[in-house]
């Protein structure tokens, strides 16, 4: 949030936490991170969250991979975080903008089919037309077939994780073409026991 | 995020998830919610998150209470969510704006002293001076003695839960005096085993 550590490049960041609702949470978190090829992103983990930064394709690739490897355990897990682009002053990690565009993890994930109920919110900063930009994103989700309703302060997506992550990526990327600084919060669940009761 | 469901009143909302990293997560979540007096807020839970809405004092009171009752179990738990005010169109729950200002839970919480390492980010919407408003909030946290550094896309707080929540509330309330629509993401941990390794 500090101006001093937030360049001019279109580097994308995702600060996230992975929450396994299990006594084995340490193993699940470490396992999901170890199974993910993170070589094309800047990465730093602290005691609260992990921050990855780089080209958009790789940030979204890594995010989906971490989620899917945790979710395939069958445990109730949640990936919760905030995507960001255009934060004024952000330059650290620019070297990661020189890599190719081949998603490192996609081939490993293709066969993992997991339902990914999601709530997300989009924040286009410093823009008077931001509510219209949010409405545009809802249309993207409707076309993708993942939109399942507006709720207070968020929108809901349901569907296969691949479709949900594609919706999130398309929404974020479409918005950042119109607004310099955009953030997007995501709360992506898996295997919730209360899923059927909602 | 839909315009159709987001008044004119200064109702505050907090959409949050409580994540206990434990096989007993259902009991911890239900226990924390049951131990909290939520009579002064509108409340709705779904399979991903809980949304509370009402006067700012009560929304922050309930948020702290839920966190502390979950954290006192000694388990690694996280309260993660987004505070919001001034979302264009928000009116449902206006009846909760008629209650008194006495915090229902504060007296029960006084003796619960728990360290609450926190990452938070403030999003003043539709305002060209938003980076200055964020800097103002950092000053609030410094005065409170809870600020422990800027990180990518967020700021960090450390300290007793009462001081951390007071910092969050003061930061949010000071900002919403200057900007109509403000959101603030919070990621508040407790009892993390990696705390010492950070």
TrEMBL record, chains A, B:
Thiamine binds at residues 18, 50. One of its GO terms (molecular function) is thiamine binding. Residues 11-90, 116-195 form the Thiamin/hydroxymethyl pyrimidine-binding YkoF putative domain. This is Ykof family thiamine-binding protein. InterPro entries: HMP/thiamine-bd, MTH1187/YkoF-like, Thiamin/HMP-bd_put_YkoF. It holds the Pfam family Ykof.
């Amino acid at each position: 949030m500090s101006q001093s550590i937030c360049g001019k490049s279109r580097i994308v960041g995702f600060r996230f936490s992975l929450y396994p609702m299990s006594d084995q949470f340490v193993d699940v978190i470490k396992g999901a991170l170890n199974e993910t090829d993170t070589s094309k992103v800047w990465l730093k983990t602290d005691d609260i969250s992990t921050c990855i930064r780089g080209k958009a394709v790789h940030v979204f690739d890594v995010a989906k991979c971490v989620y899917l490897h945790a979710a395939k355990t069958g445990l109730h897990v949640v990936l919760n975080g905030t995507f960001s682009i255009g934060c004024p002053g952000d330059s650290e990690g620019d070297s990661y903008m020189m890599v190719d565009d081949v998603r490192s993890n996609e081939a490993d994930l293709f066969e993992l089919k997991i339902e990914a109920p999601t709530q997300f919110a989009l924040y286009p900063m410093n823009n008077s037309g931001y509510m219209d930009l949010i409405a545009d994103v809802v249309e993207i989700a409707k076309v993708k077939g993942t939109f399942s309703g507006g709720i207070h302060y968020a929108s809901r997506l349901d569907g296969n994780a691949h479709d949900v992550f594609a919706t999130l990526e398309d929404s974020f990327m479409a918005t950042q073409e119109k607004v310099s600084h955009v953030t997007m919060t995501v709360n992506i669940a898996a295997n919730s026991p209360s899923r059927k009761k909602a």
